[in-house]
Amino acid sequence: MHIKGFEKTTLIDYPGHIASIIFTGGCNFRCDFCYNQSLVHTPHALPSIAQDEVLTELAARAAFIDGVVITGGEPTLQLDLSEFIHQIRALNLKIKLDTNGYSPEKVQELFEQKIIDYIAMDIKGPFSRYTEITGIPIDTAKIKRSIELIMNAGIDYEFRTTVWHNGFTHKDFDAMLGLIAGARHYYLQNMFPMFATPTKINYKPMLKSEISPLFHYAQQRVQHCGLRGEWR
Q: pTM of the prediction?
């Protein structure tokens, strides 16, 4: 495991639970608005944290936390992810996994092993814009397969989309919601402008007045829709 960050306690990253967070290095997407740019572009420049050190810390904290969030970067790129999760579960801790959904075979493997308690997948945009938004050529069949796996896995889950000013049209939202219609949880999270990669697009947070109609529309298409981040 290429562990590049570890936070002992979070009250917000695993809904309804007190958890620790593990950040893995590397990602197969190149989203300009990503808030973990160093984990994506230069993970080699970040100090690594020994796996045994993290497991020792988790064992010491097992009486005070409910679970562990494994995020990134993109955790499904880690070849020994399953083995590592088994070691954490041996401490009687729940697992929440964050993923971009581009490794459906790994998602399926984790589900078959029944070692994930909660999974959060990013919906980057409508399929017609996935390559534009992620910065790489995208096989959208992989994204579709992960969505199907998650919605039928029998565990708790959420989908989420990072938004920005003038970033999405109602047509975009209609297409995205068509992919996850009836989903249990869907969150719209505003971007953090200080982390955006300088590009031709002047990324700015979406305004509250801008998200409001899209949010209310989303509420009609999923079981629960929520907002995260700051809204002005």
A: 0.95
Number of neighbouring beta carbons within 10 Å of residue 179 = 17
Q: Which fold is adopted by the domain 3-228?
A: TIM Barrel (3.20.20)
The answer to whether the peptide bond before residue 73 is cis (omega within 30 degrees of 0) is yes
199 closest CA partner among 138, 132, 131, 140: 132
Domain spans, the chain: 3-228
Q: Residue 180 and residue 144: Cα distance in Å, rounded?
A: 9
pLDDT tens for the 232 residues of the chain, in order: 999 999 999 999 999 999 999 999 999 999 988 888 888 889 989 999 999 999 999 999 999 999 999 999 999 999 999 999 999 999 999 999 999 999 999 999 999 999 999 999 999 999 999 999 999 999 999 999 999 999 999 999 999 999 999 999 999 999 999 999 999 999 999 998 665 555 656 788 999 999 999 999 999 999 999 999 999 9
The CA distance from 115 to 96, in Å, is 10
For the chain, give the longest Cα–Cα distance. 49
